């Protein structure tokens, strides 16, 4: 079974280097599905040049379709540029731009209306983890961010669990913690009767040293990788590795 690898390049890499990176990627077949989220100014150009690669917006506007919203880009404009995925609610957007669950839900709903698959990010900080309130916290994020009534209309949704306390630290939850969280998330999706249209991925300090451990956990369909995905050799090894067939 193929896993989903999402490479979030954030605000890194030049256009020239991004082009060369993608050109190398298409030279060979890969064992896993992958989506690349390059810096926004490169999206339309890279999507036009590399038709065989799925590209993803790192964000999308809460305003639908078109209008006088300087600096914004809507899900419709992404779709018209050939983009089929968009990240919403990333922890950096939540913390740096104070994006609420309500706002994230609106963005996700706009994506679905434009036939774009939203990648909805959720995750707890260290204080919430230590207070042992993380499961309720995550479920609240999910309930308030996920537009259940829009799911099931032919466009899949991806939920990315990225515990904030792991990002950039090299530390990830242990096996038992991953099993617990993804069981909770999967149970919620089953009860909401949307599980067939939703994939679950893990994000946060993913690298070659821990990805096999992460993807061996039941209910984890893939990973979202930040810094490590900027290293071509690392990303290619992840894309070509058959860890789940061992």
TrEMBL record:
Location(s), subcellular: Cytoplasm
Biochemical pathway: Carbohydrate degradation; glycolysis; D-glyceraldehyde 3-phosphate from glycerone phosphate: step 1/1; Carbohydrate biosynthesis; gluconeogenesis
UniProt keyword annotations, A-Z: Cytoplasm, Gluconeogenesis, Glycolysis, Isomerase
CDD domains: TIM (cd00311)
EC number: 5.3.1.1
Catalytic activity: D-glyceraldehyde 3-phosphate = dihydroxyacetone phosphate; L-erythrulose 1-phosphate = D-erythrulose 4-phosphate
Gene Ontology cellular component list: cytosol
GO molecular function: triose-phosphate isomerase activity
Any single biological process term in GO: gluconeogenesis
Listed InterPro entries: Aldolase_TIM, TIM_sf, Triosephosphate_isomerase
Subunit structure: Homodimer.
PANTHER family: TRIOSEPHOSPHATE ISOMERASE (PTHR21139)
Family membership: Belongs to the triosephosphate isomerase family.
Protein name per the record: Triosephosphate isomerase
